[in-house]
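[User] At your convenience, examine this fold.
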Amino acid sequence: MLRPAPLFRLLISGLLLWLAGITCVWAQQTTDTTKATSPATPAASATVPATSTTAVQATSKQLPIDSLITPYGLMLADSAERVRDSVRYTRLKQRMSKGKLTRELYNVLFRDVYNSRPSGEVNQIEVNPYKVYEGRVIGTIFIKRLGVFGASVYDTTRNAANWVEKVANRLHVNTRESVIRRSYLQFQEGDRVNPTVLRDNERLLRNVGLFIDVRILVVPRPNSRQFVDVYVITQDVWSLLPDGGFSGFNNFQFGLDQRNFRGMGHQLFNRISYNATLPGQKTEYQGRYLIPYIGKTFLTGQADLVLLRDLKYVSAKVFRPFLNPDTKWAGQLELGRYWTNNRVVDRQDSILSFPLNYYYSDIWIGRSFPSPFRVKNPDDRARIVLAGRLTAYDYTRRPEVTADSNQLYQNRRTTIFSLGYSQRRYVRDVLIYGFGRTEDVPYGSLMSVVGGFEEAELGLRNYFGVSFSRGQYIRKLGYVYGLLNTGSFFRQGRREQSILNLETNYFSPLHRVKWGQMRHFVNTHITLGGDRFNNEYINLNSNNIFGAGGDGLFGTKRLVLDYENLLFSRVNIAGFRVAFLTFANIGLVSYPEQSLLAGPLYQGYGIGFRLRNENLTFNSLQIRFAYYPNLPNNAAALRYAFEGVPVLRFRDFDINSPQVTTFQ
């Protein structure tokens, strides 16, 4: 959608305004003529490839040809008129860009705020858009691959805005069509349309990290009530991420992270550092190669080699998660060899350092079954999951282990099993953790019971733990997620390494304000540890919410409350969208002999802004200014930070490997 620019941008009056009026009338006449010969559904003209035009014209009066012409589609496009306006003004922009005078006139009169729309009501986007075609036979599957910049899956007519974007599109290698067909599609030609499979597959493609966004369209064939064609429209994300720094020829780093190597979907990461100013090892290296979704097995293989000054390891693993509620089998096999220079902080804030060398192995397997219990909503696919896991640590170098010290470094075998109940579906929304891309919000609940035993040098002990989590939208209030888990080992009737975790996450509906769209976020996290081993503590600053000054705050009990207000503005700087943030953090931490509420209330307040280009794989760039009034050993209460912020992910309700509740 386009809006008139501010008046001060109209550098030419009179004649230009008259020309603008004539131009707009001409554009409207052109659009009206186009509408007379175009399909009845406006969104299709913006998205369906030209090869389907005949089929669309022949069937547009019988069925909706665009899988988004539903309440869900209306939310995404805001309205059919908005999509029609986008196409109209895109054509206007293309025609006016041919001449210098008309191009300048367009830039003066209009500013592009397309895709700055807010999300609609959540209850409008829960309709599965493919149900109207359920049971029909899939004839041909077409793959439409879009470049990184320019067109989007909701408007394929848009072009790259400048020469930089055009060059970037040429340099980037799009994901190969054969790779999409072979590794990522869960349906094939000749299958009958299963609305659940199509919707799950669209979500899967969005989450693999290769694409900015994905859209799957179902188009009925002309003169056929049995066959349909499926169009898979993908838009790649820029996959090459450079990294490095230079402080001199005796201290520099260089790295490349390729998230889509040669369009095959493989991930290749390499980083080399050289520092001659420190004693010991001068050169460091980190490398990783990952092959996702091998063939139709949906197995992922990963190999790592890390040669850092204080950490060296080589590891390999093959794994397959429960990709969707209908996945029957999941599991993982991992083997690794580690050499570390371990550091721990004791109660006197002294740093203890000692070498640790060990072998690590981990194997688990899980099986999912349809739930025998009835659910109110058939879209809430419920599953029962049984899983078993075996992990082993074999140390070749470590400090002395006794019943009172260094118990964490025992040679041990842990065998645990889990029984879980999962009920989940996904709701699509925008502007939560992303800056405009479609986000799949998990909605459901999860319950699991974990039990097993550990064979270690200090004797046999048993483990038992339970976990419950639930997340849902509450009408007009927003999204609420809650997690409660607890677990403990038991040795001869005594508890060991007990823990209780309570976590809540909330974000408000998207509010339209004068400067853009805004959300509120509130997160709480309570961790209570009991009967922990010596030198086993948690840090108040585990998520870096208190900056560098909070790194020395340790204990066995912790409470953190985090509030953030995020304003997604209309400001766009070279393709980077800007969000302004206001935040407040408070926290408590204490040791066992002291009440959690008796300690000092650590605080942090601040403002800042965050920039992100969804076309790139970079972390979001963030600059924040903060005030920490009472952090200990804090040289300056007022601070600023320039940092990279990874994109947050929603906590899902899938059951994977059985877990011992972590203390971190």
In short: Residues 91 and 139 are 32 Å apart (CA to CA). Confidence is low (pLDDT under 50) at residues 1-89, 104-125. The two ends are 47 Å apart (CA to CA). The longest helix spans residues 15-37.
